[in-house]
Amino acid sequence: MARYPTNGLTLAEANGIIAAALAKGRELDLLPLTVVVLDAGGQVKAIQREDGASLLRPEVALGKAYGALALGLGGRELARRAQSMQGFMNALSDLAGGRAVPVPGGVLACGADGVIRGAVGISGDVSAQDEVCAVAGIEAAGLVAETGDAA
């Protein structure tokens, strides 16, 4: 039987993260969400956009996940650094082609061993609520969510 590399998250894990994140959004009666899951190599593993989600939600969700993965830090820490290290974060944005969005809602998905397996970005409601849904999705997949704040 041939084995193929997963580069972090499997498709089944990514789809499970999205399903649980969207379910959390419906439970909280949030605005329509878009969820992007990246593997450890920064490639899109899965994406879903709820009916009614506004035009640029996929790009914003991707930017939240991409920024977290790019620096290995959760979105909350990226937001703090955007405030205190504006020059660095501007350079990061330039290097990333504008894809890094340093706000809550970008969450690293880690194994129990602390190894980053991928990242989740959600956009649609306020960033703090997007983050709640990302954490719910990651934890439902049996992974550890890293938001950028101490647990």
TrEMBL record:
Superkingdom of the organism of origin: Bacteria
Cross-referenced InterPro entries: GlcG_carb_metab_protein (IPR052517), PduO/GlcC-like (IPR005624), PduO/GlcC-like_sf (IPR038084)
Name of protein: Heme-binding protein
Organism name: Roseicella aquatilis
